[in-house]
Amino acid sequence: MTEYELKPIIKIVTEYFLNITGDPAVMGLPYIKRENDPVFDFTGIIGISGARRGGVYYTADKGLLAEFGKSILGEEELDDASLNDLVGEMTNTIAGNMREIFGSSFLISVPIVLKGKIDNISMQLKPPVFVIPIRWKNYTSHLAVGLE
């Protein structure tokens, strides 16, 4: 994975937030993942196979997911099961849209969803794994991408 490949991924994420909610997301400066990078309340993880191998994870706090869910579902309150489904769907959509960059041989797995603040998510990938901070409304989330 190269820094050059991050630009279209950032575009995919900003367009996703804007198209779904009408409010743009602002991407922070991507950096190489460190051992103790924050993991928020809910995390969706997608394995990548095919011509590229690796993984993608999206991690967000409960407030962001609740607000995002309200935008698309119109419901005022979402339970944890709904937030689990939502973070999995968000991760799946972002990873699926990455096929535009990497082609049809970019194969994604079914998302694995984790609830709770985990100390660290370890992806057994050839470095670098890039973390893209995402700011939407008053919330911060992270998208991590590690591809060989």
Task: Give a verbal description of the structure.
The structure is a single chain. It is built from four helices and eight strands. With 148 residues, the protein is an alpha+beta fold. It has a single domain (3-147), classed as 3-Layer(aba) Sandwich (Chemotaxis protein chec), CATH 3.40.1550.10. Strands 1, 2, 3, 4, 5, 6, 7 and 8 form an eight-stranded antiparallel β-sheet that branches. A hairpin with a 2-residue loop joins strand 7 and strand 8 (139-147). The chain is globular and about 40 Å long. The mean pLDDT is 91.
Tag the structure with descriptive keywords.
alpha+beta; Chemotaxis protein chec; 8-stranded antiparallel β-sheet; 4 helices; 30% strand
